[in-house]
TrEMBL record, chain A:
Gene name for this UniProt entry: LOC115742787
Top-rank lineage group of the source organism: Eukaryota
Pfam families (UniProt xref): LOB
Family: Belongs to the LOB domain-containing protein family.
Segments forming domain LOB: 6-107
Biological classification of the source: Eukaryota, Viridiplantae, Streptophyta, Embryophyta, Tracheophyta
Record-linked InterPro entries: LOB
Stated name of the protein: LOB domain-containing protein 24-like
From TrEMBL, chain B:
InterPro entries: LOB
Domain called LOB: residue spans: 17-118
Homology family: Belongs to the LOB domain-containing protein family.
Originating gene: LOC115743622
Protein name: LOB domain-containing protein 21
Length: 141, 180
């Protein structure tokens, strides 16, 4: 019985022989055909091959993963792709920063208000515990 | 001889100039050229970047699949992604997304801490909840489930995105009307 060497997903898709030094095979295994189909649809095999080849070996898996992610985003959202996610994140960050600024302003206001009240209190026991102020308890007997 | 000299310095003006895509691809730019409205001849770098990352053929296929009124946005987002990929050949846009997600998590944490501190200033009431100060707890508590793709970034790149480049500012790529 002859041994059949399995082609990687890329070479299967491209209907060609998968050589031992195939640039795609470590990153596009045959058990995940959709992965290569996605990147091929958006970038093309030639561009993907070039991008992988131009990267140091230890970073090539990340290149393949990021290309796959971006191509999936583009397929799901042909108009905005990943850029849409980035735009959305910018907007959310802006909203959270605004809210944070509001809350900090409120804290600053309440803090200065509390300090002002504290400074007007007669110093009887010398105990200017903020808790007393907070609960409304009077330090005057 | 005179006629030859006259012809040498004289060029017939073109009826219409080629778009940046057709100039780069060294082909005739027809009136129905799909690239012409979006890759003007005075912006050669824009198409060059998009072509380098995606390829003209793939860009054309993407444009054909979207409605005409959305093609400009499509081109701008492709240009943005191409720029990000050329700037960061390993992570491309994913690097930017991971950075922004990290910033978002930090901000949400800061907001939670600030709200907790604000609650401490609240006027106490019978219940333990802080009612003296009005807080909209829904603002800022964004779930990444709202954007399904985002959770994939954490799973795939959370540990390995240590050498991320800066997020390219949105204004670098011209109009970017991606307001949700």
């Amino acid at each position: 019985m002859s041994t059949i060497s399995s082609r990687c997903a890329a070479c299967k898709y491209l209907r060609r022989r998968c050589p031992p030094d195939c640039i795609f095979s470590p990153y596009f295994p045959s058990n995940d055909p959709q992965r290569f189909a996605c990147v091929h649809r958006i970038y093309g095999a030639s561009n993907v091959g070039k991008m992988i080849q131009q990267t140091p070996t230890q970073m090539r898996a990340q290149v393949a993963d990021s290309l796959y992610f971006e191509s999936r985003c583009r397929i799901q959202d042909p108009v905005y792709g990943c850029a849409g996610i980035i735009s959305w994140l910018h907007l959310q960050i802006h909203n959270v920063e605004s809210e944070l600024a509001k809350v900090k302003a409120q804290i600053a206001f309440l803090n200065s208000d509390a300090n002002r009240e504290l400074s007007f209190r007669p110093q009887i026991e010398g105990d200017s515990s903020f808790n007393n102020l907070r609960t409304g308890e009077s330090s005057v007997g | 001889m005179r006629a030859k000299l006259a012809m040498k310095g004289h060029h017939e003006p073109r009826a219409s100039s080629s778009c940046a895509a057709c100039k780069l691809l060294k082909r005739k730019c027809t009136s129905s050229c799909i690239f012409a409205p979006y890759f003007r001849s005075d912006e050669p770098k824009k198409f060059a970047k998009v072509h380098k990352v995606f390829g003209a053929s793939n860009v054309s296929k993407i444009l054909v699949e979207v409605p005409e009124e959305q093609r400009e946005d499509t081109v701008n987002s492709l240009a943005y992604e191409a720029e990000a990929r050329l700037r960061d050949p390993v992570y491309g846009c994913i690097g930017a997304i991971a950075l922004l997600q990290r910033k978002m998590v930090e901000l949400q944490h800061d907001l939670a801490v600030a709200r907790a501190r604000l609650a401490w200033y609240a006027v106490p009431v019978a219940s333990s909840s802080a009612q003296g100060v009005v807080m909209d707890e829904n603002v800022g508590m964004v779930s990444f489930d709202d954007m399904p793709c985002c959770s994939m970034v954490n799973e795939s790149f959370g540990q390995s995105s240590s050498e991320l480049t800066q997020v390219p500012p949105m204004n670098d790529f011209g109009q970017f009307p991606y307001v949700f």
